[in-house]
Structure formats: structure tokens, C-alpha cells
Amino acid sequence: MRKIKAQLDLFLIEIGDLSYFTSRFFKETFKRPFEFKELLNQCYSMGNKSLLLVAITGFIIGLVLTLQTRPTLMEFGAVSWMPSMVSISIVREIGPILTALVCAGRIGSGIGAEIGSMRVTEQIDAMEVSGTNPFKFLVVTRVLAVTLTLPLLVIIGDAVALFGSFLVENIKGNVSFVLYFNQVFNSLEFGDIMPATIKSFFFGLAIGLVGCYKGYYCKKGTAGVGKAANSAVVFTSLLLFIIDFIAVFVTDIFFDL
Length: 257
Fold this sequence. Notes:
Layout: H1 2-29, H2 36-75, H3 82-120, H4 123-129, H5 134-173, H6 177-187, H7 190-216, H8 222-255
Helix pairs in contact: 1-5, 2-3, 2-5, 3-5, 3-6, 3-7, 3-8, 5-7, 7-8
């Protein structure tokens, strides 16, 4: 019982520290000077290096979802609904959350390890001594970069997943490209696309904040760097599911009146 209480206390302390870290991020974001060059470098680095992984994941998801669902729809004579079902499933839920989880493992752990190693080797302390604001240069740029690039990665992942689904339908059912994507776009509505895009920004914000927080307050030693990277992925994954639940709940209220 005492051990559970101690773990609960540590969890609540960490939530409080992360909340303070988040408030400091928003405060520093609007202060001069603005690190536009570093922001662009981080956007290119995170987006470019994650693009292939996101595309491969999306393509496989489109293939698997269609292959697994098609036999069931054929039993009910509803195989013609395949493009509509797959597109709504991917755009609303599967695409954003899977892309966010992939980026949490790829980007979140990378941020935690990078900033954590800088903390351990006292590079952050050296930046403070030289008059540079390390929080603004390291944290703000990376969090903004993830927040801006993740929605683009989600869109690309959705498009590749739909293309993978089309390939299965083309091979199995001889469905043309034009017919398939006409049904896809006819089935999608504003209430499907906009909430998924908005929550992608929050996914990116969560990945960047947790990764930077774990790295910025990394404990001394090389073991602390690995622990920071690992805990960043675990904590971010849990936070992504919580944000996703809240987003779905809010969407159900405002778009299904």
C-alpha cells in the first residue's frame, strides 16, 4: 500500500512538472528572438526522416484493413461499401492515431535522447552561461516543429493507406481508380476530416512536449538518457490515447447534434 502511494505521489508530481513545463513553453513561444532557422531545420528533419516510415505503415494498414474486411462484407453482399467504410475508418481514427504512435516512437524518443544527452554532457548549461536561451532554442522549436509536421504526415499516411486499399480492391474486385476514389470522396464529410486534422495538432503538441520534458530534466549519467527516451515513448503513447478519447467525445457532441 505504501509503495502504491509513493508511485501515485510521483505520478502526480510528474503531472505538475509537465504542466509547468507546458505553461513555460507557451510563455516562451511568443517572446523574442524567434528561432525561425532552427524551426525550419527541425521541421525538415522530423518530417523528412519520418515520411518513409509513416508511408510504409499507412500502406500496410490500408492493405490489411481491406483484406480482413472484404470477406465479411462479401457475405452480406455489401462489398460495394468497402471504399466508404475504409475511408471513414482511416480518416477518422486509424490514420491519425497510428501515425501519432509511429511518430511518438520515432520523434519522441529521438527528442528525449538528443536533449537528454545535451543535459548530461552539460551543453545546456554551457548555452545558459553563453547567454543563449536553451529552452527557446531547444524546446520551443522542436515542439512547434512536431505540432506543424504531424498533421501533414497524417494526411500523407491517410492518402497512402487509401491507395493501398485501392490496390486490393483493384486486384480482388477489378475496381477502377476513378470509381474507387469517387466513392471515397463522396462518403467523406466535413465532420470526418476537420476533427481528425485538429486532433493531429494536439497529438503533435503532446509528442513534442513530453519528449522535450523528459530530455530537459534528464538525470545524470548515460543510463538517464536511455530512460528519458524510453519513458518519453511510454508516457506519450498513454497521453495520445487520452487525447484521442477526449477528441472523439467532443466531436460526438458538436458534429452529431
